[in-house]
Amino acid sequence: MFGFSGPVFARGLVLALILSSAVSAHKDHTGEKTSTDPCKKISGKLFVPPADALACQKSFPFNETLRTSVLQTVSRIFDFFTFEDYYLNSPAPFQDSTTNIRAELARIGTTKYATDYDFNRDLYNFANQLNDGHTAWYPNCYNTFQNFLPAPVVMLNMNGTDGVYVIPDLIEFIDQLGTDFTDYFDTIKFNWKRLAGAKVVSIEGMNPYDYIDLIAKNVSGNYLDRGVRANSVVSSYRIVNTDFSQRFGDLAGPTFVDQNSLTFSVIPINSTKVETVEVPYYAGYYGNKFTDGATFWLNNCIATSDTNGVDLRTQQSAMVSNMVPVRRSPLPRGVINDFTRAKAFGLPPNFQPNLPQVNESAGVIKSYILPDGKTGVMFIGSFDGDYVQFQTDTVSAIQGFKKAGVSHVLLDLTNNGGYICLGEFLHQYLAGSDFGYAGFQSTNRANSLAVKIVAANIKQNLTYTYYSPLNYLFVNGTPIPETYNYIKPSLPLVVNGVSNPTSQRYADYCTPFDVPIPRKAPFDLKNVAIVSNGNCASTCAMFSTVMNERHNTKIAVFGGKPGDVLQFKGMAGNQVLEWSDLDTEIRTAGLKNDPLAPPDLLVNANFRHNWRTAWSYLDETTPIAYKSELPKYRFAYTKDTYNNPQNLWTFVVSKLFG
Ligand SMILES: *[C@@H]1O[C@H](CO)[C@@H](O)[C@H](O)[C@H]1NC(C)=O
Ligand SMILES: *[C@@H]1O[C@H](CO)[C@@H](O)[C@H](O)[C@H]1NC(C)=O
Ligand SMILES: *[C@@H]1O[C@H](CO)[C@@H](O)[C@H](O)[C@H]1NC(C)=O
Ligand SMILES: *[C@@H]1O[C@H](CO)[C@@H](O)[C@H](O)[C@H]1NC(C)=O
Ligand SMILES: *[C@@H]1O[C@H](CO)[C@@H](O)[C@H](O)[C@H]1NC(C)=O
Ligand SMILES: *[C@@H]1O[C@H](CO)[C@@H](O)[C@H](O)[C@H]1NC(C)=O
């Protein structure tokens, strides 16, 4: 039974008066000085009405110099993007991501924009709709707010019928935003509490599933699979750092503040009548302090010392050697930047597992033995965080399971991403070292500048860069020597009729790990299963895919729109390079002055890209990102499982191992 504490108000719903029109003077703003500075109006506030936040964001005039410079950088970064030509005609079932990237950049280069925000927003939308969380534009100037709707939604199966509901734990969840948030709704006399658990009949006049699908298409981004994106639209549980957390979802917690309210038709709990209610958003501020427009710009919008890369050859040797604690280069990462992690709210404590943890001091991995006494659960919140502790946590969980006589293991990967080598570590640990290489074959693009970078790495015997041959193994498992050029001669690759030469195939060099790996699998791999919501990105996607492709592991995915396909992996690129990482590679190779090198960003922003491709074992000519792989099991969330991991594990274990 689903229980919640806290009062539930059953007063009549109050239609909120939608927010001030005081900013309308800035509507078609062209950068001319107005009498009031819209940024000054909101300075020092934790929460502000979204229209006020947007007025501040739109107070900076469009600047042609910035546009030209940003687009030159971005366009040259795209030369390194391994999936560029796949986008010309994205293979089914991912066809809705099809985009002509160069044509879009040309369009953005000639569009007339009124404000700097409008330009950045267009560039953001274009990159976001590539639906590859490894390839994205993050203008920090405009990522300083998060818009919050006190009505996150979920897709639940109730008594055998699918429907969209306002989260039943609304009151406990929203109360965590504090009185700065909730007092506002009291002031405008909006009773959001009454919406807890309400059945949603329509959103903005649309069927609620269609509206969720629209947000999945327009807003969510990150994942090639639209079914997985539908799960990002709604609320879900996760681990952030080492704490249980609940996501708002992209409908109720978007980064941009261009929506003031959302109109719902709902049937509140204990009612049979459909009521229409306009729910206001209220935006939280998470950027650097400012007092007015000029200081907002200075503190949030112009390039910082971290925006662009560095020449590692001129860094203190201590700093460089700090970067090689385990491997020879900084640890390669494949991770989604989910900005909502920075301002995460907890999973209300009454929905967190009440079983004792197998090791209470464990970090990002929370492990339990279910009451059946035979199933061990590892909830792996991410493959990120403390690199060594991830490994020691795995050892203590598996040893704890063994000691308790556990025979089955469930891995919960809901809302996960992280270090490539930790994905390989977990696979290696579960499969045993006798299994051999735990990762995928991979490649990067052999564009002219990349070819020069590798040559410069070899010539200077650089050992701490991502392009260094020392980072990789030949596909037969032997290390690539520092003098071996793996990118020249390049290999031909034709994608959608376009020639896109690539490096030779190589393997990741993740070993040795920091803990001893058992030679044999500690548990029969038939008794190891994975569960997630498909928001399993990057390293998580590579880990689930390698388990599927090499061991035919049972994978169960929850949620998605009923009737739609839902992949178990959200986005399975491979290594991502942030702009500053790529720039560091270029500078350290001594090629910053090369005519093909992207110029420095002048603004406080990041354009990241998927730098390596991982190739499928099932079809060696297809990147795993484009290999449709469906879970063997698919379940709807219920009111008892959507925010309650322990209930979900108990349910899924009965289906998978029962
Ligand atoms: C446009 O941005 C450039 C680079 O930051 C700056 O030098 C220039 O003054 C800006 N132009 C205007 C009109 O503000
Ligand atoms: C589901 O069934 C329970 C028990 O019969 C009932 O109380 C509840 O109102 C039903 N919920 C919905 C959404 O139909
Ligand atoms: C979705 O995107 C389309 C195309 O960019 C746009 O016309 C539409 O207004 C957007 N809808 C919403 C609800 O964001
Ligand atoms: C619904 O009705 C039940 C039974 O009267 C009551 O216990 C519960 O608090 C009500 N829930 C809401 C949200 O009003
Ligand atoms: C529990 O985890 C911590 C942190 O990873 C580790 O140091 C400790 O050895 C573990 N304890 C056991 C009993 O495995
Ligand atoms: C390159 O550097 C590595 C690590 O310092 C060293 O072991 C190796 O001998 C060097 N190779 C050449 C060709 O200088």
Automatic annotation (TrEMBL):
Q: Does the keyword Signal apply?
A: yes
Q: Does the keyword Iron apply?
A: no
Q: Would you indicate the residue range of the signal peptide?
A: 1-25
Q: Which UniProt keywords apply?
A: Signal
Mind telling me which InterPro entries this protein's record contains? ClpP/crotonase-like_dom_sf, S41A_metabolite_peptidase
Domain of life, per lineage? Eukaryota
The protein, known as:
Tail specific protease domain-containing protein
- Lineage of source species: Eukaryota, Fungi, Dikarya, Basidiomycota, Agaricomycotina
